[in-house]
């Protein structure tokens, strides 16, 4: 995957965040931070510890001979091994499945080199019906943190956020980027329904500018409309 562009100003939600947000002249990018295996292990040290404990518990139970005493112990061994490998699986996902998202010229592209089929997917911003996050969601479940739903029924998922605050920060920035990249008056309107997390200096200023641009170019609302503007929905 191509390295970060020196022409873009990249920021993160916090120093330990996993997603980079870059903004330049007519271009907005979101990308997973590139991490080595050792770096991924340090970032996800809790998974490493939990996997190690699970494997050690399974081995200790097996060596103790308790699996021959009661049928519940083989089941416990199986669960311990399963959770041990599950932690390794999530660690490998963080290391080997990065995403690169670019918004420019009224279109959006999602590059995921790990995909065997169609690693690069492109679509117009006008096709985006909704943007979701799997963090704390009862309706959207994915191994990735962010997903867009398109007119043709497809749901494209990408990016991995470290935690829920970062996922909501990324979601809000992506919604504003899509709204600002559309033609004036394009539908459907994307509404930022989550309280905005704190933004780092330059990013907060840029987001405010984009929100004002969206408000100025949006068609006037009907008196009976129940849809609030992005800016109003952001005020909590």
Overall description:
Residues 225-236 have low confidence and may be disordered. The protein has helices at 37-43, 45-64, 72-96, 164-181, 201-217, 230-234; strands spanning 9-11, 19-24, 27-32, 100-104, 107-111, 120-124, 128-133, 146-150, 155-158. It folds into 2 domains: 9-34 and 98-217 and 227-234, no CATH class; 37-95. 39% of the residues lie in helices and 19% in strands. The chain contains 6 helices and 9 strands. Strand 5 and strand 6 (120-124) form a beta hairpin. It is elongated. It is of the alpha+beta class. The two termini are 38 Å apart. Helix 1 (37-43) packs across helix 3, helix 2 packs antiparallel against helix 3 (72-96) and helix 4 (164-181) packs across helix 5 (201-217). A 6-stranded antiparallel beta sheet has the order 1-2-3-4-5-6, with helices on one face. A 3-stranded antiparallel beta sheet has the order 7-8-9, covered by helices on one side.
Keywords:
236 residues; alpha+beta; 2 domains; 6-stranded antiparallel beta sheet; 3-stranded antiparallel beta sheet; 6 helices; elongated; disordered C terminus
Write the layout of secondary structure elements.
Blueprint: E1 9-11, E2 19-24, E3 27-32, H1 37-43, H2 45-64, H3 72-96, E4 100-104, E5 107-111, E6 120-124, E7 128-133, E8 146-150, E9 155-158, H4 164-181, H5 201-217, H6 230-234
Helix pairs in contact: 1-2, 1-3, 2-3, 4-5
Count of structural domains: 2
Query: How much helical structure, as a percent, in the residues?
Result: 25-40%
> Order of strands across the widest beta sheet?
1-2-3-4-5-6
Structural class: alpha+beta
- What composes the largest sheet? 6 strands, antiparallel
Shape: elongated
Number of strands: 9
Number of helices: 6
DSSP strand content: 15-25%
Using the CA coordinates, give the radius of gyration: 22 Å
Mean pLDDT: 80
Query: Which regions contain 5 or more consecutive residues with pLDDT less than 50?
Result: 225-236
Oligomer: single chain
Query: SSE string, helix = H, strand = E?
Result: EEEHHHEEEEEEHHH
Distance between the termini: 38 Å
